[in-house]
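Posting for a labmate who doesn't have an account.
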Amino acid sequence: MEPDQQLEIQLGHLCNNRCVFCVSGQRTEDGDALPADVAPALAAIRDGRARGIRKLTLLGGEPTLQPGFFEVVREAVALGFSEIVLFTNGVKTSRASFVDELLATGGHFTFRLSFQGATRAAHERTTRKLGSFQRLVDTLGHLRARGQRITVNMCVVRSNFESIVEFPALLLPYGVTQLHLDLMRPLDAGVRTEDELRATIPRNAELAPHLAAMIAGFPEGFDVNVGNLPFCVAPELAAWIHHDGEPTLTVAADGAGALSAPWDKYLVKRRDKVKLDTCRACVFDDECSGVFETYQRFYGLAELTPVSAERLLAVDRARRLFVRHLAPNLARLEGFTHAGFRERARGVDARARLVALEFGDDAGATVQLSLRPEGAAIAATDRFVLQLDATSADEPATVALLRAVFERLAEGTRVIHPVGDDAVALATPRRSALDPRVGRALQRLRAASPIGDLRFDDVAVDPDGRRAEARFGAADDLHVAIELAARGPKISLRYQLDRAVASPPERLVRDVARALATLRGEG
């Protein structure tokens, strides 16, 4: 076990619901789910905490039905778990007194409520238990009144998927922070006939319009995620799809309540999934684990069609999947070196839409960069902006590296403004010889780009830092140089064409005038 993992313990299979997708209700109905001995669970959480794990998830069946439930919770609180996630169908938490008793333990809880439909009819069709929906609604009220963190989980099956468009109206008034929908895994459904499974598992393509309508009903930024849907079924929803999750060790129970040794949850969950060889051409190949074997048996694999980079860009104009769009550009840095510098570290945060890069040389100098979809930057293309976060190298070496890295990354994009000699001054003015007034003017120019038809080609700075020249290409193969010079208390500006023309094009004159106004801080 590693500290960055979470520990998930199934306290047993006892459950009051009879969900069509779950083994626990079936085992309970068959008399094969007994109250579990609490000792193995206590031993498991002690072992996990001793190894540095700080997040614990308790699930079942219905974990609150286990006689040793509170003993486990109190031990987890005493051991110092920073978060205890409780999966529940509301059977006990529908009573305010139970919630208060739980909170009195002093634990920091996240409640994960098992809504199996966003309407009463859909939920109770799926749980096969009358009254189960209202218990969860009552739970929402109790938790909301007590300021608790609430998340919701649903297994997507034929009896509930059409209801999901009602989730925003159901959940938002109670301050729910996350909704996770997961496609049914047939191996977790217990002993089912082929006819039962076929009646339970919908076609993936049927889900897409309902998912899209549901997501549109939530405010921007609400945490919705859909597990195990192939990206190619709905690439426009790829920002909300995932396969696997955070590293999780699961301790599972058998019918009698005996607990297993910890196992890697998502490694096991992938073992009955299949893909096509053609999936290797998909931009999501490394993220997507395909479909379950049972799904293939029922519906085949014709839905699995590779998503190209071009198709992804067409359906994700907002660049929610910024990191995924950037993959071809980042691949060009493989094996890249420049003047002794090579890539030493890379960090990717898909949710924050950020790629962080660190380059270093043998002398110990480091240059830290980041790529984002937008914002103030030392260089920009129509796909990303480049920011300099920190450097311990001297200014010329930093600028040379930045120019080389940007040239690699920008291949195949439209450059809006390039890396110039002002790069260090833009990011860390105190480390640069560039006159601060000139630097600020150049920052305004970059932020305003593109300016009409002017193509921003370069910025050159004199060694003393008091003069810079911004160079542009224009229509009719003309080139323009705009000089910025610190003379006394003011910045002087002038421009010059690279060759004499009898009458400069009117549009060029207008664009240059706009550039000069920007440099002066006008408009």
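Reply:
Got it, the structure tokens are right above this. Residues 107 and 523 are 56 Å apart (CA to CA).
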